[in-house]
Amino acid sequence: MTTTVFEITVSLDGYVAGPDPTLDAPLGAGGERLHEWAVGTAYWREQHGLEGGERNADDELVRAQVDSTGAVVMGRRMFSGGSGGWDDDPVANGWWGDEPPFGVPVFVLTHHRRPPLVLGRTTFTFVTDGVADAHARALAAADGRNVHVAGGAEIGQQLLEAGLVDELQLHVAPTLLGDGTRLFERIDPARLRLEPIRALHSPLATHVRYRVLR
Amino acid sequence: MTTTVFEITVSLDGYVAGPDPTLDAPLGAGGERLHEWAVGTAYWREQHGLEGGERNADDELVRAQVDSTGAVVMGRRMFSGGSGGWDDDPVANGWWGDEPPFGVPVFVLTHHRRPPLVLGRTTFTFVTDGVADAHARALAAADGRNVHVAGGAEIGQQLLEAGLVDELQLHVAPTLLGDGTRLFERIDPARLRLEPIRALHSPLATHVRYRVLR
After folding, report:
1. Distance of alpha carbon B175 from alpha carbon B15, whole angstroms
2. pLDDT in tens, B9-63
3. DSSP A34
4. What are the phi and psi torsion angles at B136 (to 5°)?
5. Whole-number Å distance between alpha carbons of B52 and B9
6. At residue B60, what are phi and psi to the nearest 5 degrees?
C-alpha cells in the first residue's frame, strides 16, 4: 500500500525558514541552521561526492526514507531553489545538478507548462493542474512504494488540507528562528488531528513521525 | 548534582496556551487539548483520587519526573490558577486543594509578600525578589535532587535567559492551536543552543528532552 508522507525540517519554534529570504540565503536569516543535521550525514556527503560524515540516527532515517520512496511531489521553489530564483524561470534546470538524488519520478507543481526534464536517473514532470493532480500522478508512478512530499511548507499544507497526506515526518532542529515562514500558517487548527507513531533523536535533531487521523 | 529542568507542554505549532484566555478557560481556546496526554495517565488520576488511567510512556515519564524532583519553582498564575484568578489575590490558596501533589518545597514568584502556606505535605514559599532568588532558594532546598521549573512559559523563559536552566523537557501535544501564547516569545533565538538527549512518544504526546548548551 502506498503511504503519502509529507517530510519537512522545522525549528523548535515552528518555522521552516527564517525572516528576510534572499537569492543568496533562500532560507532566510538563520535558516541554514535548520539543515545542519542533514548536511552532517554520510548520505548527504555521498550524494555530493564527498567522503565521511556521520552514520547516526539522522543518516539511517534519511536512507530509509529514500529507500521507501517511489515518487516525489515538490513545489516550484524546491525545484528551482537558489539557481532558478524566485521568478519561476520556465527553463531553468533547478538546483539539483546533473545527477539529482531522487532516482524516482518527481512531480513539480508550477504555473508554467514545460516538457519533462530528464537529469541522470530522475525525470521531473511539471504539473499545472494543482496538488490533487500532482498527487494522483505520483501515486500512479510510485509502484507501491511511498509518495514523498518534499515541500515546501505551502505544498505540504495544501495536501494536508486536501486530506491526501497519511503521515507527517518532522525533523525538529534544536534551534529557534524567532520569525519567518511558519510550517502551519494556513491549516485550520481544529481540523488537523495527529498521532505520534515514532520519535528518534540525534544530538542535532529530533525526528517525529505522525499519522494523520481522519 | 542538582539539575534544573524546565518542563512544559506545547502544541505542535509552539503555543503553551490558546487565544482569548478567560477565568473559566485559563488555557484559552483549544488549550485543554494540550493536556489530554497528562489527564489520561494513571498518575494524574491517583493524584485526583480516581482509579484507572493509562500506564504508558506518559505515565512513566510523569512519575520519574516527580520522583527526581527536590524543589519546584512556579509562577504566580500557575499557583493561583483558576481559583485565585488573574488579579494576584494575595490570600487565595491556589487551585491545588488541601493536598497538592508536590510533597517538596515550592517557590512561587509573585509581587505580593505573604507568609509561607502549608497545605498537606507541601510548603509554598512566596518569593518577591525575582527568578534568580527563587532559583537559588529552590537549589538550596532540593537536597541534591532536581529543581523543577513548572512554568508558566514566562518564568521558564526568564530562567533560560538568566542561564539557570540545565535541561528543557517539552511535552509536544499532537495538536495545533493556531494562535495564543508562544513558548519562546521573549528568547533571543541566536542565544539558545540545545541538544536533544531523549525522545519518547505515546499516541497522545511526544516527550523531548534537551540539554541547554552554554
Report:
1. 10
2. 999 999 999 999 887 888 899 999 999 999 999 999 988 889 999 999 899 999 9
3. G
4. -60, -40
5. 23
6. -60, -40
Select the residue of B176, B196, B201 nearest A198 (Cβ to Cβ): B201
Q: Whole-angstrom Cα distance, residue A199 to residue A195?
A: 11
Mutation target vs A (from B201, B204, B207, B209; most A CBs, 10 A cutoff): B201
Cell 523531548, residue located: B208
The CA distance from B194 to the nearest CA of chain A, in Å, is 5
Structure ipTM:
0.88
* Backbone φ/ψ region at B46: left (φ over 0), alpha (ψ -120 to 50), beta: alpha
Mutate which of A11, A12, A211 to disrupt the B interface (most B C-beta within 10 Å)? Answer: A12
Distance of CA A130 to the CA centre of its chain: 17
Distance CA B167, CA B188 (A): 17
Contacts of A192 in chain B (CB under 8 A): 175-176
The C-alpha cell of B66 is what?
Answer: 516527580
**Angle between helices A153-161 and A131-141 in degrees, nearest 10:** 90
> Where would I find the beta strands (DSSP E) of chain A?
4-11, 15-17, 69-75, 106-109, 117-119, 122-127, 146-149, 167-173, 181-182, 193-202, 205-213
With beta carbons under 8 A apart, name residues in chain A contacting B208.
172, 199, 201, 206
Q: Where is B140: in which H helix or E strand?
A: helix B131-141
**Cβ contact (<8 Å) for A13 and B14?**
yes
Residues of B near A (Cβ–Cβ under 8 Å) read 12-14, 30, 172, 174-178, 182-184, 187-190, 192-208, 210
**Residue tagged 519518547 (cell numbers):** B200
Name which of A206, A79, A214, A66 is nearest A148 in CA terms: A66
- Cβ–Cβ below 8 Å for A196 and B205: yes
* Alpha-carbon distance values, A23 to A28, A93, A176 (Å): 9, 16, 22
pLDDT band at A79 (very low <50, low <70, confident <90, very high): confident
Please tell me what DSSP assigns to residue A144: T
Residues of B in contact with A206 (CB under 8 A): 196, 199, 206, 208
Are the C-beta atoms of A149 and A73 separated by less than 8 Å? yes
Please give the residue of chain A at the shortest CA–CA distance from B15: A13
C-alpha cell at B106: 515550592
